[in-house]
Amino acid sequence: MPLPTTPCPSCGRAFFASAMRFHAPQCAAKQAAMLVPCPACGVHMPGAELSMHMAKTCKEAKDRIAQASDSRRGGPQGGRSPATPPAKPLPILPQESDGRVPCAVCGRKFNPDRIAKHQFVCSTAKRQSSARKR
């Protein structure tokens, strides 16, 4: 018997093509409703809402970004005026055919429930390494 070869776009598991029409809608709904912790504050929320939470409402994520930029610039104001807005959060790219999402910073691919945490860590590490080079 042949092995299943069609990857699910949500979870990445392989299925037979005939079974995918049943699995895909259920899996997508499950992935969107799965509770994941915010990497900055630890609050659990549906994975579909994590990106918006980190961009708009997560005070800890904003504080970490501000601390990283302050240490890079050498002071609490960091050489910028208080009216200058902080850097925009990174977008979460769409899923690829294998069900994984590429990182906007390094290009590595991750499951949809892990990409927000990875991008947060990856962007912070990239900023810190670029600050050391200066």
What report would you give on this structure?
Strand 1 (6-7) and strand 2 form a beta hairpin. The protein is mainly α and 134 residues long. The protein contains four helices and six strands; from the N terminus they run E-E-H-E-E-H-H-E-E-H. 46% of the residues lie in helices and 10% in strands. The protein has helices at residues 17-33, 47-57, 59-73, 115-133; strands at 6-7, 14-15, 35-37, 44-46, 101-102, 109-110.
Defining key terms:
mainly alpha; two-stranded antiparallel ribbon; 134 residues; elongated; 6 strands
Chart the SSEs and their pairings.
Elements (H helix, E strand, L loop, with lengths): L5 E2 L6 E2 L1 H17 L1 E3 L6 E3 H11 L1 H15 L27 E2 L6 E2 L4 H19 L1
Antiparallel strand pairs: 1-2, 3-4, 5-6
Helix pairs in contact: 3-4
